[in-house]
Amino acid sequence: MPEWLTVSTLLITLSIFFLRVIDMSLDTIRVLFVVRGRKLLAWVLGFFQSAVFIIAISSVLTNDQNVMTIVGYAAGFATGNVVGMLIEERLAIGHIHLTIVSPARGVAIAEMLREHGYAVTELSARGLNGMVSLLHVDVMRRQLDVVDKLVRETDGEAFITAEDVRPVRRGFWRA
């Protein structure tokens, strides 16, 4: 039996894979917390992430760099990035800025969002085919689906973009 097919090598490869998934998941979430200015959480995640990384890389280097352990390491890296992104999406921590462009129903969208407790800034703008309403709404990320549904119910043709923001000071944030 080839060395790379032994039970021992496969177990080590799986261990490295799962360590790397944990490592990269923590790293991905940590970076997102750094961007959002969450210092303590970034520090805690960085501490554990680096400890797991050292265990994973040590396992690769002490196993004669067997092809299977390298594959496990690389696959764990790639998978960990995706798992970290999925975890961060589920946590939905932080704020998001929505820009809503509506050619005909902007006032109705703004009124409906205000009725639901959201602060909306309205602007008139010129689009490709004439005048449009440009609405700015800042919400908690976990409220994105609710706001999107409200907008779609009022104007199915509205164009919506979103970007992460960090509140600096003041303003209205629906809690």
Strand % is 15-25%
Mean pLDDT: 89
Radius of gyration: 23 Å
Low-confidence stretches: none
**In this structure, how is the largest beta sheet organized?**
4 strands, antiparallel
Percent of residues in helical segments?
55-70%
Number of helical elements: 5
* E-strand count: 4
Classify the oligomer.
single chain
Class by alpha and beta content: alpha+beta
Q: Would you give an account of this structure?
A:
The protein is of the alpha+beta class and 175 residues long. The protein has two domains: 3-91; 95-165, Alpha-Beta Plaits. 56% of the residues lie in helices and 19% in strands. The protein has helices at residues 7-35, 39-61, 67-91, 106-115, 144-154, and strands spanning 95-102, 120-127, 130-140, 159-165. Strands 2-3-1-4 form a four-stranded antiparallel beta sheet, with helices on one face. A hairpin with a 2-residue loop joins strand 2 and strand 3. The model has no long low-confidence stretch (mean pLDDT 89).
Which SSEs are present, and which pair or pack?
Blueprint: H1 7-35, H2 39-61, H3 67-91, E1 95-102, H4 106-115, E2 120-127, E3 130-140, H5 144-154, E4 159-165
Antiparallel strand pairs: 1-3, 1-4, 2-3
Short descriptors:
4 strands; 175 residues; alpha+beta; four-stranded antiparallel β-sheet; Alpha-Beta Plaits; single chain; 5 helices
Can you give me a brief rundown of this structure?
The protein has helices at 7-35, 39-61, 67-91, 106-115, 144-154; strands at residues 95-102, 120-127, 130-140, 159-165.
